[in-house]
Amino acid sequence: MIDWIHKLLGLAKDPDPGMANVDLEHLSRVIGCSITNENLFIQALRHRSLLRGKPDSHMISNERLEYLGDSVVGFLVAEHLFNTYTDSDEGFLTRLRSKLVNGRALAERARELNLGSFIQVSDSLNEEQRGSNSILADAFEAIIGAIYLDQGVDAARAFIHRTVLHRVDLDLLARTRDNYKSTLLEYVQGRSQIQPEYEVVEESGPSHDKRFVVAVMLDGEEYGRGEDRSKKSAEQTAAKNAIETLQSTEEGTGFKQS
């Protein structure tokens, strides 16, 4: 049955052992889950940058497992919210799920597990790139895909409850305003006549899995960057980082006062 699933998903049955420098015993303790099919978890931690130029690299990188894990985490988080907030409408549930499973949130969950220390990436990537939200979130989702295939839906549900749902106060998160673009606009307008401008500085990935890096500019100067799977989400992250930059300096520094 498992072999059939692997064939259907196009997963490598036996990835190149030369790239399998992963302490799986340690990983098992970190994720709190047994590992039966070691190749699945090795593949889940193999970033595509390691395979540049290799034919069919998507078959042995973590891209396909990430695709599966993205669907699994979305479904299981939706299931939990549906059962928890029995009187809430679709809009509320959708917004809350988005806060829990967006790239920034999943990258934070990966950092809490120190998952970055297990991820295999190209030596050409610098430290900032290795620890990017994109790489961490992808690996986190790929691990969920591996757990689902290796141990089943109950194990995946337990992992998601432990790492995603029980790490945050859901009621507080539901009430939290996270429109950072509006917050940044209000912050800036209260101090100057400058309007934030958002620029896509990098776009990568295949059409079904785009990655956008957006910079927010104030009076021609960059104050923050954000990276995510959609331009809107990347803009929100850039705005959040810009707010933190502004708040770390003296009020109004660098702005032309109105």
Attribute tags:
258 residues; Ribonuclease iii, N-terminal Endonuclease Domain, Chain A; Double Stranded RNA Binding Domain; globular; 12 helices; 9% strand; mainly alpha; 2 domains
How does this model look, in words?
This protein has 258 residues and is mainly α. The protein has twelve helices and three strands, in the order H-H-H-H-H-H-H-H-H-H-H-E-E-E-H. The termini are far apart.
What can be said about this structure in brief?
This protein folds into 2 domains: 2-175, Ribonuclease iii, N-terminal Endonuclease Domain, Chain A; 180-247, Double Stranded RNA Binding Domain (2-Layer Sandwich), CATH 3.30.160. The chain has a 3-stranded antiparallel beta sheet with strand order 1-2-3, covered by helices on one side.
